[in-house]
Amino acid sequence: MPIKFTKTTHPISFSSLSGHEFERLVFAMLLRMRAWHALNWHGQSGGDGGRDIIGVCDDQYGAPKKVVVACANWKAFTLGKATGDIDSFLKTLGTPPNEVIIIAGSSVSAETKDKIDEHARSKNIAESHTWSGSEVEELLRFHAPSVLDRFFHGVELPDDEKSLRDFIQQLDPVTAIEAAEMLANVFRRPAFETRIGEESSLPAFRQAIGDTISALNTGIWRDREGAVIARIPSIASFSDSVVVSGLRACVDDLNMLRTAFDQGLRDKTVRPCGCGQADCPVFMIDRAYGDQLESLRSRAMRHARVALAALRAGSS
């Protein structure tokens, strides 16, 4: 049955939430924001060592990166507390994560954000972000309005990690923007962003294409090991003819791309680099064949962009 979109405009007062409730809302939001291979909420059990949530997702090259999230719903956000949290979880983890996100429920000055970034870099953390309360509200409304809709209609979010994860996965998007972002996440991965050239890093390229086709058709998005990453709106969820035709055309082109990649492997126009390592992601591709693959992928992405643009336009 097609999804019916509604709007939520209730104001958010993070100050009225306990630290536990704030963490729970943040965890629900993060589930909708990225394609996580793992996302674990540690703060619920206490003694979290400054890291409330730890996740693993792909970086821009398709390699796994560790992300630590510290929730800071304090009445007065201070630099000392934020850097103290970073120092605390570093002692617990032993090795620096690839990315740290400090999430505040109140305002944070640009100067304080810069100093937190400097402290993170001094601890060999490559990427750091600090989100103020207003930024968190904006992210919630953009990525997870369905969570807010339930929250403000008195449906309490589950209190344990597994139940909360299952609850969020079953929530239909309540706005077209949320549906579009859920779909767009499927394409935010190296298989669709890394340029195909004569020497290309294509880890699990064919698998990623197949996973995307399956996700668009069934609404269940799995990672390369078969674990469910998220549930997204399937093509059958939409009634807008432009959205449906665009997504179907995208799937058709992705099937052609997968077939062409397989053909390239058979006739050696696409071949492993020759280093002998079974898990080496580097492939050598004949220039003309690489251009053909790039053309097919670009066409698929054009269809996806048309569908997503129509979906987003329908929300305005």
From TrEMBL:
It comes from the Bacteria. Pfam families: Mrr_cat. Residues 16-118 form the Restriction endonuclease type IV Mrr domain. This is Restriction endonuclease type IV Mrr domain-containing protein. It comes from Pelomonas aquatica.
